[in-house]
Design a protein that fits this description.
Layout (H helix, E strand, L loop, with lengths): L11 H7 L19 H7 L1 E3 L12 E2 L8 H8 L10 E3 H25 L2 E6 L6 E4 L7 E3 L1 E5 L4 E5 L2 E3 H8 L15 E9 L1 H8 L5 H14 L3 E8 L5 E7 L2 H20 L16 H4 L4 H5 L2
Parallel strand pairs: 2-8, 10-11
Antiparallel strand pairs: 1-3, 4-5, 4-6, 4-9, 7-8, 9-10, 11-12
Helix pairs in contact: 1-4, 3-8, 7-8
The structure holds iron/sulfur cluster (SF4).
Length: 300
């Protein structure tokens, strides 16, 4: 199952793009603990933990939310039912970790996989005014993630990219891409970038890929018409990376299509799914506490 990418030599140009020692200014004096422990401050900010209903703007199921979806909640949301404030709160530190993960995506796409010339898609100029399809180039250094939506399948989302395994094999064999067409698109594979803490990183590295990531990967594979996903994990605690290939499953793809079709049927009929579709065993369960439709759902 595992096939590493990051045992490859990263081009020197890439390293320079990340940091040049001559650009780091030494100000001489260091004064510690001016701000105290900011993580304590962040923990004290609590935000409403309203559950995501897993819908895109067009009332389609989002790829990242299909696995954990509550069918009733999604239909309430699609029918614009009145929402109630949520009881649960989550700390600002969680938001901080999510924002850090988003920023890491760009670093991996634009500064590592891009200059390695293995990431395929639309690359734009720095100002985003021009773009072209293919692989990274100094003139087009920013990656644009693929977006998709399919009203018939009732699914939408955006992927982290498409990586060409044939190009990776060439790099591993010590070859370069001289003489290859710029748009050579051989053995494409869906790319999924994840950042996580040390504990989850070790767990995943040992072969435990969570079910919700398997579902998400299969949705993207359907849209990209590929059968593999390369998961690229970054350990937020120490910056280490690991990668592996997940082979998609036709059985999961069928289950996804079935779930989306069920949602579409209820949404179009403007009918709330039967009680058997309730995700929560009671109004006091963890998921219900952050659901904006819990009272309506349980008739309270
Ligand atoms: S309370 Fe639970 S079961 Fe009911 S709609 Fe919300 S998430 Fe679904």
């Amino acid at each position: 199952m595992f096939e590493g990418v990051f045992d490859l030599p990263v081009p020197e140009k890439t390293v320079h793009a990340i940091a040049s020692p001559s650009e780091i200014e030494d100000t001489g004096e260091i004064t510690h603990e001016m701000m105290g422990d900011l993580s304590k401050v962040m923990k004290s900010f609590k935000l409403p933990a309203e559950a995501s209903c897993g819908l895109s703007k067009g009332k389609l199921l989002r790829a990242s939310g299909v696995h954990g979806l509550c069918m009733r909640q999604a239909v309430y949301e699609a029918l614009d039912s009145k929402r109630e404030p949520c009881e649960s709160r989550f700390p600002m530190t969680s938001l901080f970790a999510m924002d850090a993960g988003t920023a890491l995506h760009e670093t991996i796409q634009d500064r590592i996989l891009g200059p390695m010339r293995v990431l395929h898609g639309y690359w734009t100029t720095r100002d985003g005014k021009e773009k072209r399809l293919g692989f990274w180039h100094e003139m087009w250094p920013r990656y644009e993630e693929y977006s998709f939506r399919d009203g018939e399948l009732c699914l939408a989302g955006h992927t982290d990219g498409v990586i060409c395994l044939e190009r990776i094999r060439r790099l591993k064999a010590g070859k370069n891409f001289d003489g290859l067409p710029m748009n050579m698109y051989t053995d494409p594979c869906h790319l999924e970038i994840k950042s996580t803490n040390d504990r989850n990183f070790k767990h995943t590295k040992s072969g435990n890929l969570p079910d919700y990531y398997r579902w998400q990967a299969n949705v993207y594979q359907m849209f990209l018409e590929v059968d593999k996903t390369m998961f690229l994990y970054m350990n937020r605690d120490n910056g280490s990376l690991c990668s592996f290939i997940y082979q998609g499953s036709d059985k999961l793809k069928d289950a996804i299509k079935e779930k989306a079709a069920t949602f579409k049927k209820y949404r179009d009929a403007e009918a709330i799914p039967h009680e058997k579709y309730r995700k929560c065993p009671s109004i006091n369960s963890k998921d219900a506490k952050c659901c904006p439709f819990r009272r309506r759902c349980f008739g309270a």
